[in-house]
Write a structure and sequence with these properties.
By secondary structure, this protein is mainly alpha-helical. It is built from 21 helices and eight strands. It folds into two domains: 4-384, no CATH class; 391-535, 2-Layer Sandwich (Transcription Regulator spoIIAA), CATH 3.30.750. A six-stranded mixed sheet has the order 4-3-5-6-7-8. Strands 1-2 form a two-stranded antiparallel ribbon. α18 links the parallel β5 (420-425) and β6 (462-466).
Length: 546
Amino acid sequence: MINISWVRDNFADSSFVPPLIYAVFGSSKDLAVGPVSIASLLLGSMLREKVSPTKEPLLFLQLAFTSTFIAGVLQASLGILRLGFIIDFLSKATLTGFMAGSAIIVSLQQLKSLLGIVHFTKKMGIIDVFSSVFHNTKEWSWQTILMGFCFLVFLLLARHISMKRPKLFWVSAGAPLVSVILSTLLVFVFKGQNHGISVIGKLEEGLNPLSWNMLRFQKKYLGLVLNTGLVTGIISLTEGIAVGRTFAALRDYQVDGNKEMIAIGTMNMVGSCTSCYITTGAFSRSAVNYNAGAKSAFSNIVMAITVMVTLLFLMPLFRYTPNVVLGSIIVTAVIGLIDVPTAYLIWKIDKFDFLVCLCAFFGVIFISVEDGLSIAVGISIFKILMQITRPKTVIMGNIPGTNIYRNLHHYEEAKVIPGFLILSIEAPINFANTTYLNDRISRYIEDYGFEEGMKKHSDLHFVVLDMTAVSAMDISGVAFIKDLKKAMDKRGLELVLVNPIGEVMEKLQRANKAHDFLAVDCLYLTVGEAIASLSSKIQPDTSSHV
């Protein structure tokens, strides 16, 4: 099973020191911090590909602490430099696919403990895992499988009850503890360790020592810890801030995103020096905090004191706890990350986002955690670039009996105004899209009249650009308007601008003072006002219409 040998020694410590740090620096009243399943298991899985936690336990711990330190530096730096927007590149679609893929990968890793396999692959790929499982069938233990199945059913049933009846949240919250206590008693009474059931073994009492001298930045492992720290740092930070904002919205207060990044980063940096691995805000713990009526971050201090008492006096009680139950708890914890309803909703709303979701999902399963995440983020950025370089432009028409102008393709009742080509640009105009906009507008002019059954191309007199949705414009955008005005003049057409706002209007005015390319009568506040004012300039030509 993934990293039980080091999780068991450092999980509790990670619930002791970091909460104390967060209570000082954090801004959320409800967030309860500590180890979370996805970040913890990703950290262990990624390191396990290169270093064995059983053969080289000290090195494994050193790399885990170093990765946590790097994650903390990254998180705190994002907050100090106010670069939290970088996290927004992890879209809902990306996170949905990534979490689902990670849940499956982590669950498959638990087959080692659920089946009682001794020799298990270090790789995370789904093909490697199944190959290892079926190549070691002789190591399967029926006692382990039976115990794992029973407790897995119990945990899933408890989870199902809490989901169906939210008031019974304590059922799923307490089920893991009940499982640990009951399974430990069973193994102790029936001496299960002598019948093929693997147990945790002896655990040292007391607080773990300082670990600042265990941080390793040697060239041989630098790439591994940087990669692991980056992935787990971003994922844990995203989860922590998302959880904090969720509960802040329920209680109608604001969470400072940058302050949260600094708090989470600081507690991971300090934690890495006190025998703790990656921690963040946990949804389940925070839900318990919320339902218990916690009013401030002081609840984290109470939790830390409770954990300290456990570390000092209660550790020997877990000596006979079977690893198979820990595997069952992990599977139950991560299975909730597979959000099928959200994936289906993404499919119904946006097919491209669903493609991003699938890429993250299959990338994690068949390639690697970091590659799957990178592919999904890359595709998301490509989508943004496409939207920037290919801004939406639509032809607008008048809704009869009103002064309202809307997209012709969205409103069947909208009608074209003869003599006018009314276009709406729904994006900032900058160096990345001016060429596309110029080509698009030229095509609209060439095609004018054919869709509406007009016979003469010369019916067009005015090209009206509704710039209400143009929120920004750079120097290339100003040059685009200037060149477009010249092109319209050569065609014998008049360019009209409607409602250029704020920064856009200021830049056009400054450019106009230097080159005088815009007349006062080509600027209007609304499309309706422009049409009403300019219609009188068009000479009726009944010969051009049927």
